[in-house]
Predict the 3D structure of the following.
Amino acid sequence: MKPANTLLSSYGTTVFEVMSRLAIEHQAINLGQGFPDDRGADSVLDAASKALYDPPNQYPPMMGVPELRQAVAAHNKRFYDLDVTWQAETMVSTGATEGLAACFFGLIEPGDEVVLIEPLYDCYLPIIRRAGGIPRPVRVTPPHWELDLDQLASAFSERTKLVVLNNPQNPASKVFTRDELQAIADLVIKYDAYAVCDEVYEHLVFDDRTHIPLMTFPGMRERCVRIGSAGKTFSLTGWKVGYLTAPDHLLAPISKAHQFLVFTTAPNLQRAVAFGLTQDDSYFNSLRDDMKARRDRLSAGLTTIGFDPAVCQGTYFLFVDASRFLRPGEDDELFCRRLVLEAGVAAVPVSAFYGDKGTAPKSFIRFCFAKRDAVLDGAVERLESYLKSAA
Ligand code: PMP
Ligand code: GLN
C-alpha cells in the first residue's frame, strides 16, 4: 500500500488529547488540556440559543457574519485603539487553530523561513512544515523565559517570510515586554517580513501587566495578523470560533486558504460571540480577576506540596519544575504519566511544546488552573498525598 503523507504521519496524537483520554480512563482530575470547567456566561449561551432559532442556519458568508466582523473591528478600537475596516480587514475562523493554518497556507511559499519562539503551541510546526516553511526556532529558557535578542536577530535572514508570536505565551505564561516587542517589530521591518500574532489569551494578563498587540507598534499595522479566540475569551473552547484582523493584502491570501479549509463557521455561535465581544468592561475584568484568583489558589497549593511555581504573567497555565520529584531516568513525560495513573491528576509535560524533544527541558510540567476551587483543591490534595507516599 502507498504511504500516507509522511510528514503528518510522523507526528503522534497531540499531548492534550492523550492526557485528557488518560484522565478519563483513570478518573483523574484533569489539569492537563487547557479548558475551563465552568459553563460559560449565560448571556452568551442565551445569545447562541436564540440565534439558533432565528434563521438562517445555512452557510454564512465565508469571511464571517457581518455582526461578528463588526464586533471584532470595534473590539480592536476599544481595547487597542486600532482602526480596522471590518469588510476588508477581519475574518472569522473555525477556532484560532484554523485561522493559524489559513495564515500558514496562505502566506508561506515552499522554502520560506519562519521564525518561532520555543516553547510553542503544538499545531504550529506541523502545519508550517506542511506548507513548505522552514522553521527557525529561538528558545526562551525556563524558569524566566527571557528572550535573547541576539539569538532572535540571528534567526532572521533575507529568507524570513514571517515570525509567529504567541503573546501571552502558552505554556510559558510569559507576557512579552514592550522592549521585546519592539525588538521583534524592528526585525520584522528590517527583513521585510510579516508577523502572525497568536493572541488568544489577550484578556488573560495579570497583575500590573497589559496586553500590547504587536500590531500597535509603528510600521506593524501593515505587517501583522492578529488572532483571537472565543474559546479563551468566553471560556467556550468547544465552540471553535476564532477571529483574525489583518491588512487587506495579507487577509486576501489567507482567506483563499480559509475558503478551502472550512469555508465557514456555525452562524449562531458567530452571532453569540459578536454579542460577547460587545459586553461592557465588567465582563472582561471579572474574567481576568476570577482567573487570577484561581492562579493564586493553585499556586499556593502547589507551593505547600514543595513545587515552586513561577508567577504566571498571562494565560491560564502554571508551570513548575518537577526535578525534586523525578525518579532516576524519569523525564517530564513519564512523570505526567505516573501522576495521571497513580496520583489521579493530569498535567502536561512542557517538552511537548518543543520541535526537538531531544534537547528540550525535561523537568517542567504544566497545570491548567481554569477550574473551580473545589477541583483545584482536590488536585492539590491528591498530589500531596501521592507525592508524600511515593517519596
Ligand atoms: N493558540 C494557543 C496558544 C492556544 O493555547 C490554543 C489552545 N486553545 C489555540 C491557539 C487554539 O485555539 P482555538 O481553540 O480557538 O482553536
Ligand atoms: N490550547 C489548549 C492547551 O494548551 C489545548 C487545545 C487542544 O486540545 N487542541 O492545553
Notes: The first strand starts at residue 29 and ends at 30.
